[in-house]
Design a protein that fits this description.
The complex is a heterodimer of chains A (119) and B (332). Chain A is an alpha+beta fold and 119 residues long. Chain A folds into 2 domains: 1-29; 34-109, Sandwich (mini-chromosome maintenance (MCM) complex, domain 2). Chain A contains 2 helices and 8 strands, in the order αβββββαβββ. The longest helix of chain A is centred in the N-terminal third of the chain and has 23 residues, at 6-28. Chain A is elongated. Helices cover 36% and strands 27% of the residues of chain B. Chain B contains 9 helices and 17 strands. In chain B, the strands form 4 sheets. Chain B has a 9-stranded mixed sheet with strand order 1-2-6-7-10-13-14-15-17. In chain B, strands 3-5-4 form a 3-stranded antiparallel sheet. In chain B, helix 7 packs antiparallel against helix 8 and helix 8 (274-287) runs antiparallel to helix 9. Chain B is globular, with a radius of gyration of 23 Å. Classes of the chains: A alpha+beta (119), B alpha+beta (332). At the A-B interface, helix 1, strand 6, strand 7 and strand 8 of A face helix 1, strand 1, strand 2, strand 7 and strand 8 of B.
Chain lengths: 119, 332
Amino acid sequence: MKIIRKGDIALIAVILIAAACFMLWSNSKSEAPQAVITVDGEVVETVDLQSVGEKIIIEPVLGVTVAAENGEIWFEKADCEDKLCIASGRLSKHGDTAVCLPAKTAITVTGSDVDAVVY
Amino acid sequence: MKKAAVAAVAVLAAVLAALLAYDGIINKEATADFFAMNTYASAKITGADSEECAALAEEITQSLDTDILSRTAENSEVFLLNKNGGGALGKKMRGYVSVLLDVCEKSGGAFDFTLGAVSDLWNFGGNPSIPDSAALSDALSHSGYKKLALAENTLTYADKAAVIDFGAAGKGIALDEIREAFAEKSIKEAVVSVGGSVLLMGEKQFTVGIRNPSGNAGSYIAKLHIPAGCVSTSGSYEQQFEENGEKYHHILDPETGCPAKSGLLSVTIISESGIMSDALSTACFVLGHEKGAALAKEYGCTAIFITENNEVFVENGSKDIIEITDGAYTLI
């Protein structure tokens, strides 16, 4: 008399494979490019860049205007003196970052293929 | 299905559930974004204590700034030293000052953390402009690391008008303090950036982009494949302004009090220590490629120089660590 039949072994194998796949997936999932806008460290808006077509305007904080269009996002207007945030230009690729220090506002495109950019 | 088989499947399922839960704990991710030391900082941490560490990174950087390194926060250690023309140093400050004085000495003064009065005239953090030349010479005459004397735990200013400034080392110091705090926690990996100086912790091989000197923040021209450590870059593209058709950047040559002209766009330093990577990147930028390479070698650090001709040199390290990703730049 067999205690474990072939079908049972198959079932066990399926469970094992499914679990292994899940672990691999959860450790290596890559994200679609999303632009995350933070003000003083708090996320105020997340924009799925792939789905942005027509121009949209976001005002994350008083005095700062962020625009997104055709998969790109950028600081369009800012009340700060240096305008370095506007000079950062348009962001679209994984890891692109622009920061407005006076307004404590940052735009970061997630899912970079590098761990960090040194500058 | 036989009972034994059902039991076997149940045990397996329980083991797998436990494994998945364990995986979820040891690979728990936390991130933090914050503004400190007049710059932008971010942290990404994996591990059981990731959330605690993300909060800790911010706390450490903020308190290091306001309690110790800030030149403007009243009652910070540096504020009081500048106000009183020296004084007794705390244990941490004693360590920072002694490392920086060594870099000043070994770089022949190309690195100097006593240029506070000169930096104020340029006002790079605010609304920068070319300073009046008389005011600049006056500020320079009150600057220079040789005006400082460190004996035991006391720092004495020979010229009470000298102003020490940790602008070229503070971000690296923050990385060292963060690493020390994280060492006691349960984490697998951490990547912390304080104003573009980066701390890497963990067993894996990390990939770090070197900022494109003529591109957007966040865009890079090369990837570094390196193990855990600290990486800092000093570049002429940061805090730049234009006046009368000429561009002025924030890395001052201590000899002239003006932006350093050494034929470089940026220098990147890889070191075990954050204070060293940060200070050396400035020193090597001011010294230029040849002398900078010699200094990096003296400290046992790898240095990557990007020249104004878009040539990339790896000094005191293997070229295998770098992968150029932008065709406009050539690895020599």
